[in-house]
Design goal:
By secondary structure, the protein is an alpha/beta fold. 35% of the residues lie in helices and 10% in strands. It is globular, with a radius of gyration of 23 Å. 37% of the residues are buried.
């Protein structure tokens, strides 16, 4: 009865307004909706765009409308003393949620960050209080800029979450004086999240990458390109992998694109579109051919994938990420396969 009374009262009020005022109200409503869409119109969003979007669509648990949810994806290498959860507790965007890459994964796999099952993913999203209609903006810790957020953003997208963006970046958010909070985790209201389907067209398996590597030098092959985001010294085999006992080196005919070369050295944001294109062109990447991005465990590979999207370089339907990446590769290939290449440094 109360809802009906409010509705009827609203209608009566609107009916008593002059046409010009009604028109202005409709314009304001339409403008607000357009502003939300405009603020987050691209995959990468600026601190200013996110701040404005949070004002119009805050992550309130009582809101029945689609909300903007900041999602912290902070993660660090296993040989780093820092942890993602500690970074989240230390400094975060107000009302942000924390996505734990070390927990939301295939726990039965021997490889570190393989995608979770659709059921596991839905459970994690439900526990985070994220609804299917929410806009999710993923970000890293304030001290690294861009690192693991693209991986989490990609995970949401391959499981079909409709509105996903990457903050470019939280380091700038802090430096530009936007609000932050700190302290222990707080509870959020769980929301039922439908079990999705995995978009397998975006994920490269070991078998697929192995076939590409074996055929890399054969005449008449399709020419799938493998881009490696690891530091160049690990790619060449000069430096060890951070995981003990794992050989360094690279796959046959793969291209080294250390992810740091795609970021601004000072702000740690993605480079502008034209500079990203220049990097790919200088590395010899052919935008007309399919691309598989790889790294150590499938985390920073997605920095390459996001940079390709931001630059408009290549065909979106021809891009994949090798989920197991080098950690799986180096453990599964046999020495007799000759599929781990180490470059020998030559003296000049």
């Amino acid at each position: 009865m109360a809802a009906f009374t409010i509705l009827r009262s609203t209608r009566a009020t609107l009916g008593s307004l002059p046409p010009r005022q009604l028109f202005r109200m409709s314009q304001t409503t339409a403008t607000t909706k357009m502003e939300v869409r405009r603020h987050l119109s691209s995959y990468l969003v600026t601190p200013k765009e996110l701040a404005e979007a949070l004002k119009t669509s805050p992550p309130s648990p009582i809101s029945t409308h689609p909300r903007v949810i900041p999602l912290c994806a902070a993660w660090f290498m296993p040989n780093d003393s820092r942890t993602g959860i500690n970074a989240f507790v230390e400094k975060r965007i107000p009302k942000a949620r924390f996505f734990d890459l070390d927990k939301v994964k295939d726990k039965h796999s021997p490889y570190p960050h393989m995608l979770p099952s659709p059921k596991q993913f839905a459970q994690a999203m439900s526990e985070l209080g994220i609804r299917k209609e929410d806009t999710v903006v993923v970000y890293d810790s304030h001290d690294v800029g861009i690192f693991s957020a693209p991986r989490v953003g990609w995970t949401l997208r391959v499981f079909g979450h409709p509105k996903v963006h990457i903050l470019n970046n939280f380091k700038l958010w802090v430096e530009e004086g936007y609000p932050t909070e700190s302290g222990n985790l707080y509870s959020v209201e769980c929301n039922p999240y439908p079990i999705p389907e995995l978009d397998e067209t975006k994920v490269a398996s070991y078998e697929e990458v192995r076939e590409v590597a074996q055929d890399s030098n054969k005449e008449g092959t399709e020419g799938v390109q493998i881009l490696d985001a690891r530091p160049n010294a690990r790619f060449t085999g000069e430096a060890p992998e951070p995981r003990e006992g794992l050989s360094s080196g690279h796959m046959p005919s793969s291209i080294s694109i250390p992810f740091g070369e795609l970021l601004d050295p000072t702000t740690k944001t993605f480079l502008p579109k034209d500079q990203l294109r220049k990097v790919f062109e200088q590395k010899g990447v052919d935008p007309s051919k399919p691309i598989i991005s790889s790294c150590g465990t499938g985390v920073t590979a997605v920095i390459i994938d996001a940079a390709l999207e931001e630059a408009g370089f290549g065909l979106p339907e021809s891009r994949k990420v090798y989920d197991g990446s080098w950690t799986e590769w180096a453990q599964r290939v046999e020495p007799s396969d000759n599929l781990i290449i180490k470059d020998v440094a030559t003296e000049t």
